[in-house]
Specification:
Layout (H helix, E strand, L loop, with lengths): L6 H19 L23 E12 L11 E12 L9 E4 L6 E6 L1 E3 L7 E2 L7 E5 L8 H4 L3 H4 E11 L9 E2 L4 E2 L4 E3 L4 E8 L21 E10 L3 E10 L10 E5 L5 E6 L1 E3 L5 H4 L2 H5 L16 E4 L33 E9 L14 E6 L6 E3 L3 E3 L3 E3 L7 E3 L2 E9 L9 E7 L2 E5 L39 H11 L15 E10 L3 E10 L5 E2 L2 E5 L7 E4 L2 E5 L4 E6 L5 E2 L16 E10 L8 H5 L4 E4 L2 E2 L20 H16 L2
Parallel strand pairs: 26-28
Antiparallel strand pairs: 1-2, 1-12, 2-8, 3-7, 3-9, 4-6, 4-8, 5-7, 10-12, 11-12, 13-14, 13-25, 14-19, 15-18, 15-20, 16-19, 17-18, 21-25, 22-25, 23-24, 26-27, 28-29, 29-36, 30-35, 31-34, 31-37, 32-36, 33-34, 37-38
Length: about 650
């Protein structure tokens, strides 16, 4: 009997084979080992703002040095700002401290917050170098963008030079008090650091308006960039410059910025480019795209145009003027001096380039800078998007018109590291016949002046009073003769000059029991004049006793400061002119002078001749002037109005002769 031929046997055999295979598949020994789960990346576990810095490569470059600390290296690095939080990150700024004298040569995906040009020396920064986002100035959240990295992440590429060993920053931070950033984690194997910034629980949040933009900021000088009209390929913007510092000022201002997206200026009203040049358009991308545009009517195709104000007589020009607050020859006064003159404005029509040819795609220029002739230095930040500016209806209706988009640029007064003042102060007094002049090279010495011709480090020689009235080049003989009379030391070579265009002399005029007075004199050694000039002096101990000025208008301000300006008709400080006989007489400076009186009843214990009668700081047109290192020595009684040493000696001698007379 053949069992194998039976169907039942076949079925039984198949069942046995399947059961054996199934038992093997369920055996513990046959269970596969699960694949290891990779550890999450640092940014994946950050529920805030993830910051990282990766030093990607570096290379030794010339010149080769024997000292490793001075060996230069080129480097490239990438910094990342990634929003993994629950709120939008608006107008973000990343702080990176550099420790190896880094020079930043170029930046991609962002800009230097202070708008400086390249190469940028990071040693100029006190603690860290600030980078702002561009074009991604705001980073949205992963929730509202479905984790679209193009909207929630910004990468800043850096190229530069460092000295010594490969550097990694000690910290990474946001310039935003609403976030707290812990010390970063260092990954030495990959030359990178990262940290996760979380909301600061102690921060009181700023209120945001209904538009969702950040509130407007305050500063010494505020520049507004308001888009009034927008088209597919162009837009019209209003630029407004407002002075908010009581001692800030600009004369013949020059405003510059950088176009980052190949824009160009088609027309302007209220201001004008310092150079009209369309060559960059004609031979560039703009000319290739706008083939039918008449570029002879275009004003500027410069990537970094410089804008200047128009003169007052061009205000009524229908083509160039007729813009409120324009056409003042570049003068912006302090608001306390004239609120109407504290604002300047102009319009600019801008043409855009692909891919921005949409009326809703608007970008402001970056890297703003503004300067004047003899004025403070201003450092401007990058433009921040703010709520649209409201403009009153021009027809008088009780209604406002909103700008399509508005940005704000905040500029603050600062003195660059190593920069010299532009004005200086000298001291003199009734009780000493020598003048303490402006310091040697007070406003900086021109290159090559120190050496055989003059000494840039020697203290300035004390002067006779009349020497203040002549230019420095004509003082040498007077200074040397005075030193011989007074037996002062005369260095060889002689000290260099102060090289200041404006100098101020503060002279303690009288000193008596109930009060005292001083005389302040302004000297203009430049050829151009100063209209609507002002002077401010800080009197630390004598401020409370200020009474009045006799030839200037004086106002007591805060911070122990007295503000002075010319009276109507005397508000021009003329420039230097030739003497009566140009062949023999020295040039004559422009001069303004006034006496200022103080009372001692409100300042008990004040000691005028010991230093309380001299200002601690002096400002001319907003520029802080160089101050002397010493005050005139007191050789006479500290009150009495002006009895000098010689007079006192003669009186004593006369009394002695009377007593000894038989």
């Amino acid at each position: 009997m053949n069992w194998c031929s039976r169907p039942s046997f076949v079925i039984l055999l198949v069942v046995l084979l399947l059961s054996v295979d199934d038992s093997r598949s369920q055996s513990p020994a046959a269970t596969p080992t699960p694949a290891p789960v990779p550890a999450p990346s640092p940014d994946a576990i950050c529920n805030g703002i993830y910051l990282s810095y990766v030093l990607e490569k570096w290379e030794k470059i010339h010149p080769f040095t024997s000292d490793p600390a001075d060996q230069p290296y080129s480097f490239s690095a990438t910094a990342t700002v990634l929003n993994h939080g629950a709120s939008d990150l608006l107008s973000w700024t990343l702080l990176i401290p550099f420790r190896h004298r880094e020079l930043i040569v170029s930046v991609g995906g962002g800009v230097l917050t202070n708008g400086s040009t390249f190469p940028y020396n990071t040693t100029l920064d006190a603690n860290a170098t600030a980078f702002s986002g561009y074009p991604n100035t705001d980073l949205k959240t992963a929730i509202e963008t479905a984790n679209d990295l193009s909207q929630i992440e910004a990468k800043i590429t850096l190229v530069g030079t460092f000295f010594g060993s490969p550097p990694l920053p000690e910290f990474l931070a946001l310039d935003d008090p609403s976030y707290s950033c812990p010390r970063p984690t260092v990954y030495n194997d990959s030359y990178s650091v990262d940290t996760c910034c979380l909301p600061n629980p102690n921060y009181v949040p700023k209120e945001t308006n209904v538009t969702g933009f950040l509130p407007r900021l305050s500063g010494d000088l505020i520049i507004s960039y308001d888009v009034l009209q927008s088209y597919g390929s162009s837009y019209l913007a209003l630029v407004t410059i407002e002075n908010h510092n009581p001692l800030g000022r600009l004369d013949r201002w020059q405003l510059s910025w950088e176009w980052a997206r190949n824009e160009f200026i088609y027309s302007m009203k209220g201001a004008y480019p310092s150079v009209v040049d369309v060559s960059d358009c004609v031979f560039g991308k703009q000319g290739q795209y706008y083939k039918d545009l008449d570029f002879s009517k275009v004003l500027s195709c410069k990537r970094n145009p410089t804008i200047v104000d128009l003169t007052p007589w061009q205000y009524n020009n229908t083509d160039l003027g007729r813009i409120p607050h324009c056409c003042r020859n570049g003068t912006i006064l302090p608001p306390e001096m004239d609120p109407e003159q504290a604002v300047s404005a102009f319009q600019v029509q801008v043409y855009k380039m692909p891919p921005d040819l949409n009326r809703s795609v608007l970008f402001p220029p970056i890297n703003w800078n503004i300067s004047g002739t003899l004025n403070p230095n201003y450092q401007c930040g990058q433009p921040n998007r703010v709520s649209p500016t409201a403009f009153p209806d021009s027809s008088g209706l009780d209604s406002d018109s909103l700008a399509l988009a508005s940005w704000q640029v905040v500029c603050n007064i600062f003195r660059p590291k190593g920069a010299s003042p532009k004005c200086c102060v000298s001291f003199s007094a009734f009780y000493n016949d020598s003048v303490v002049p402006c310091k040697t090279c007070a406003c900086g010495c021109p290159a090559g002046t120190s050496g055989p011709t003059c000494n840039a480090t020697a203290p300035a020689l004390l002067l006779p009073p009349e020497a203040l009235l002549v230019p420095f080049d004509n003082r040498t003989a007077k200074a040397v003769a005075w030193a011989e009379i007074k037996h002062y030391n005369v260095p060889s070579p002689l000290p260099c000059g102060d090289y200041c265009g404006v100098s101020i002399n503060w002279h303690v005029l009288t000193n008596y029991n109930k009060g005292w007075s001083a005389r302040v004199t302004l000297f203009n050694w430049r050829e151009d004049q100063f209209a609507d000039w002002f002077l401010a002096v800080r009197m630390e101990k004598a401020f409370a006793g200020y009474e009045q000025m006799y030839s200037f208008n004086g106002t007591a301000m805060g911070d122990n400061t007295i503000f002075m300006q010319g009276q109507p008709g005397l508000d021009f400080l003329n420039g230097e002119v030739n003497g009566n006989n140009p062949d023999s007489d020295p040039r004559v400076p422009g001069k303004q002078q006034s006496v200022i009186s103080f009372t001692k009843t409100k300042t008990p214990g004040i000691d005028i001749t010991a230093g309380d009668g001299y200002p601690s700081k002096v400002y001319f047109n907003g520029e802080e002037c160089s101050m002397p290192d010493m005050i005139p020595a007191n050789w006479a009684p500290r009150s009495g109005g002006g009895i000098g040493l010689v007079t006192l000696f003669l009186l004593v001698l006369a009394v002695a002769l009377v007593i000894l007379e038989p």
